[in-house]
Amino acid sequence: MAQLNCPPCTPCASVCIEHQPIQTETSLDNPFHTPREPSEADIRAYQAELQTSPVGLPASEPPPYLPQRDGNSDGYPLAKRMDPIGPWATGRVDWGALSGQTGTRPVVNQYSITRYSVDEWRQRNADMIASCQSTVDQSVRVENASKNTIIRTYATADKTQNDCTQSLHVRAKNIDDLKSELNRAIAAMQEEISTMERQRRRLKQSLAVLRMPEAIANECLERRTGRPDTELIRDRPEEELIREISLISEIKAILLATLANIEQQQSDNRAIRQRMEFDWSEKKVAHENDAINCNLRNQSTNTLFKPGATRCSNEQSTEIYWEKFTRETLTMYNDCRRKSEQLRNTLDAILTNAARDLRTQADSVERALATRITCMEEIREKLEIDLRTILQRLADTEIQIGKLQVAIRNMDYGMMVVQTRLDNRNQRPRVENCRDQPQALLISEVKSLEEGTSAMNAQLKQEEAVKQELVNRRNELEREIMLKRRTIAIDHDRCQLLRSHFPSSTALSGY
């Protein structure tokens, strides 16, 4: 049984001898001995022995410059301490500076000084060879570790770079997706702003057109204040005109408030669009930056050392806040656009209802004016008929008064006759002057004539009073007819003419 000495491992050795199990061989004297073919491990071990034992000594016998086995343990320690050469050596034993370190006392004679023994020399050679072999082994291990480190480092670097490139591609795609979404939102908001601007111009046009019905209504009221005093009544046209002016004032206030809301909404729309444009511009720059980073390779010529690039600035945001900021912007855009659409729908309803109400009220005013003019025409015609009747009656009354005056004057002749008869009869002599029947009849005739004359005088006074009443009625009728004609002229020639220029529903809607 022999244990093979294993030389130190070399870079070319695939299997270290000392890592192999101990092999046993049969003796040559054994009749059952069978020769064994040398293996690759045996060849490498032999080559190693040749390197450590160039003289070709077997491994059981160490070279003479190495510690010997005789008298030594397995670790080849010093066999014995170095003593003086002998009593024949001349000189003296002296203490050297190294004695405290080496543990030896140099033996000094007249020729030389001896510090170390042969065993120490051999041990030093063995230590030197072992140190060199250890250093070589360490260099081989370090070289292999360096190669493995290079391979691992490059593999890790390539994997990390590929992961970073893939992450940059994903990040660039996310940025591009949000940028595209922002671009669509910006286009939609621009369309909304244009639509809202058209609605704002429509509203301002409606306000401008609204001045016309307001002026017409005020002009009609002002013109109707020129009616004569007896015609200054609160009729239905006046109530409808006042209601129309009140309606116009309410609609005007609503339109002005809506215009202020639209202008504020336009300001909000432009602010949201500007925020989205800023965000889109920043994402465009970030996307271009990440696109450049995605195309950078180790062979790129535009890469430089940036010592401070790994330091994160205080202004950097997190990925969560980055997405939250854009989502908040898009949420604000959706809310702002929804409010804008609701405001536009409200404006459409307001303008449509306002135009309908104004046209309805205008029709009511026109119907009231037409009804009032018709009524005034009827009363004017009736008054003219009454005037003609009064004039006819006045003429008849004047004729009758003339007849009464003639009749009264004619009664004087009968009175003179009867009074003359009575006076003549009063001239009768004494007894003849009696109250006979003719005398009584003549007195009755005088009485009857006086009563008839008094009756005709009374009738004449009544006729004259009636005549004066007819004259007064004629004057009143003429004045009333004149007032009615003036009122009809105001309502017909002025108000209805002005009302004919009342704007249509389409114009009132702002188109």
From TrEMBL:
GO BP annotations, alphabetical order: cilium assembly; cilium movement involved in cell motility
Q: Does the keyword Metal-binding apply?
A: no
Q: Which residues form a coiled coil?
A: 172-206, 460-487
Subcellular location(s) of the protein: Cytoplasm, Cytoskeleton, Cilium axoneme
Sorted keywords for this record are: Cell projection, Cilium, Coiled coil, Cytoplasm, Flagellum
Q: Which residues cross the membrane?
A: none
A cellular component annotation (GO) from this entry: microtubule cytoskeleton
The protein's predominant localisation is cytoplasm
InterPro entries, alphabetically? Tektin-like (IPR048256), Tektins (IPR000435)
Sorted alphabetically, which Pfam families does this protein's record hold? Tektin
Q: Which family does the record claim for this protein?
A: Belongs to the tektin family.
Designated name of the protein: Tektin
Q: Which organism is it from?
A: Anopheles darlingi (Mosquito)
The major lineage groups are: Eukaryota, Metazoa, Ecdysozoa, Arthropoda, Hexapoda
